[in-house]
Specification:
Elements (H helix, E strand, L loop, with lengths): L2 H4 L2 E6 L11 E7 L5 H9 L17 E7 L2 E5 L10 H17 L3 E9 L6 H12 L4 E6 L6 H14 L7 E5 L8 H12 L5
Amino acid sequence: MNPLYHRAEFLLSAPNLKTTPDGIEFEVAFAGRSNAGKSSTINTLTHQKSLARTSKTPGRTQQLVYFKLDETRCLVDLPGYGYAKVPLNVQLKWQKELEHYLEKRAVLNGLVLVVDIRRSLAEYDMQMIEYATHLNLDVFVALTKADKLSRNAAKNTLFSAQKLFKDASTNIQIELFSSLKKEGVEPLHDWLDAHMGITKV
């Protein structure tokens, strides 16, 4: 793992595009359903236990949460979507701010979509991939909690998801991921390196 990831630290929480940090040159955002494991994925990637807050209450992240790798690179934890107990007016506000961010943030260079493998790709996930494709953003789909399924079941789910996008016009990479077993960490690090301008050491 590039030591940059290990040195990741919380930078700021931005409620909207206007409050996102200046001076950043490379940025990759993490999206997914509220209970898909975004925080655990970020913590696993950075080899830190509590960089991103994990919560038993889905929908807790309501802002763009920035984690700085260095002065010019950031990972961004986006508000989770698809959680019914979050009031509709709040969901709509998040959606508007998310769209504004994804469309207008010039340094955004890719999207990591975190999907619970036991739910596979739901409607919200498909919409996010379609939206990213529309914006010409490369997407890495991390099928998290792969350890919760048998090896065969996990592989079958992976192959089915990959088949869905084999003819996609943009670059969509789909991999199994497990925070518990550290599976999929290396492919995602490689993908992040390529989209964050990081040279291997």
